Fold each of these.
Amino acid sequence: MPTNAPSVAHTLSDVTTSGSTLRRFLHGLPGVDAVGLEARAASLGTRSIKTTAKAYAIDLAISMVDLTTLEGADTPGKVRALGAKAVLPDPTDRTTPTTAAVCVYPDMVAVAKQVVAGSGVKVASVATAFPAGRAALSVKLADVREAVAAGADEIDMVIDRGAFLAGDYLKVYDEIVAVKEACAASARLKVIFETGELSTYDNIRRASWLGMLAGADFIKTSTGKVAVNATPANTLLMLEAVRDFRAQTGIQVGVKPAGGIRTSKDAIKFLVLVNETAGQDWLDNHWFRFGASSLLNDLLMQRQKLATGRYSGPDYVTVD
């Protein structure tokens, strides 16, 4: 399913000079064949991965997890426990990879940073009035600057879905650009679309290109706070977008499905999507992540089963 942007006389930088040119570009992207998209995602999900390939995939998936806690009841103690688990996911087996990052609210960044110091595990912080994004730009930018000042390596921002759905694409673009500037050179930017609220695959494709045009380092499906989060189909669509964006611009952008990915089987299906759609260049935690809380436990249990031949069960892994 080709998704290349339409042939235009101007460069991609020109399409963001006004609301009308940006709208013309985004609505000129090819429409999504929903039936074909879902059929391909389902077909790729049937691939059988076994033995050494499965062991490799599980370790790769562990290394791609953004271990997340985003609750009003989060405490410093809970965040410390989460950070310790990210650094040493399985205390009985020190060959287990570390996770890619821990993801917390801005006020917990400093706590997480202390725990993971020197480990290579990143600290990601949600920002911009997560999860709804209903705040003035000045408030959103203050949220980002607080997280960056506390040591966040990555910022996960939410777009203004209301503005996007109203067709005010330039407002969304300008906000992403402003957040990117607030990240400075110290933090990579993940842009969350909340795909479950965008209603159509065409909107997800447009949001993907809009985020990349504005300078996103990652495009991310969801906050995990709505009914529909990451799905194979919407992730496949976003993988096609980053593949085609790199083909057109030479710039590589990461993808992060988040919410609803709970089992090793699910994670491996997503890795197959990455390999078969974007390619091996994205099979690295610098370019692909899972936003998850419970997924890591299942990955650890499956890893233990492959190593020992016995299924340990959930009592053998920590809850947080």
Note: The beta strands are 65-68, 101-104, 122-127, 154-158, 188-192, 218-220, 254-256, 290-292.
Amino acid sequence: MLSERRLEVLRAIVQDYVGTEEPVGSKALTERHRLGVSPATVRNDMAALEEEGFIAQPHTSAGRIPTDKGYRLFVDRLAGVKPLSTPERRAIQNFLDGAVDLDDVVGRTVRLLAQLTRQVAVVQYPSLTRSTVRHVELLSLAPARVMLVLITDTGRVEQRMIDCPAPIGENSLADLRARLNSRVVGRRFTDVPQLVSDLAESFEQEDRGTVSTVLATLLETLVEETEERLMIGGTANLTRFGHDFPLTIRPVLEALEEQVVLLKLLGEATDSGMTVRIGHENAHEGLNSTSVVAVGYGSGDEAVAKLGVVGPTRMDYPGTMGAVRAVARYVGQILAES
């Protein structure tokens, strides 16, 4: 374990390097921070930090920069995340309150996160497997053609066209709609198959084929991998950090184009707590020079999806973590009220 004084020196190095983009020397540290010790003592502490792998010398200059291990200790020992100012919180609320539907919520969240953190923002659509049914609508488009509309508690809307084996009248359709909703509204998606398993048998023989077709479409909608959707924004922000990426930014951009990679990154975030992956902690090689800050969001105690940001390891961790957490909280409130 590092002594409290050496931890204080490491904190100062991280803060200065993030702020100035320049390797940090002992003279600058003693001038900028009240460390309460002589420059010689700071030099000794820096030598010890370097020996233990928390900081490194990028070239022959006297300055040092934090390593992935140094950033990890800095994040793990953070006293707290940086709270957003009242104007920032009000701006978040006003911007997100204007959303008209789930797509708009996700789109606004991506833009907001990218602007607040000046990083790449990634927002996953709410997971169907963790959602509950708000309403199932059945609309007659032709005598034997029906539209099924599934609405979730998170405001997600899924639509499917159904070609029925026989015409179905408005009365029969209204009856099916009523019976279906009475069984599934307010229930978890994972429970629906069992709840409707015997529904077709309760209808007259001539309607059972159509009811079975509608139910089969509903169940297909529930199990489809539609939850594997996400939106990304602010990629252009990476161009401001060109010198933070060794050789080229290209591997980072290529990794960001792969949804599977991003979904896996977000999937590593725990439901309630915040996850910070630094540098080589990211399994994908293209993201070894980046850090990922992610957290779950939802309309209740349980997260229905994840959101976060990707940026260089030289990141304002307290500020970024504060922004990600605040945005997740507001998105959760909007989903709860929608």
Note: The radius of gyration is 26 Å.
